[in-house]
């Protein structure tokens, strides 16, 4: 199951700094997580001030990623 960033993100940058795997990038309208790098430690979810990071099943993640613009996704 991947962690994904929702549109609640306010681009504060805290998750980018706090991710020890360097799996998070600040996009154009929200941060985004590379699921191929993320080790699912949950630190970003716990620390997000906007509760913008959620843990979802693959199907929901694919739905969310499909709605993102090219500047807000990992590939
Ligand atoms: S910590 Fe939350 S609000 Fe801040 S950049 Fe990350 S996802 Fe967005
Ligand atoms: S769950 Fe852990 S490894 Fe994955 S993006 Fe969040 S802080 Fe980084």
Describe this structure in words.
It is built from three helices and four strands, in the order E-H-E-E-H-E-H. Strand 2 and strand 3 form a beta hairpin. With 75 residues, the protein is an alpha+beta fold. The longest helix is centred in the C-terminal third of the chain and has 9 residues. The model has no long low-confidence stretch (mean pLDDT 97). The strands form two sheets. It has a two-stranded antiparallel sheet with strand order 1-4. A two-stranded antiparallel sheet has the order 2-3. It has a single domain, classed as Alpha-Beta Plaits (2-Layer Sandwich), CATH 3.30.70.20. The structure holds iron/sulfur cluster (2 copies). One iron/sulfur cluster binds next to helix 2.
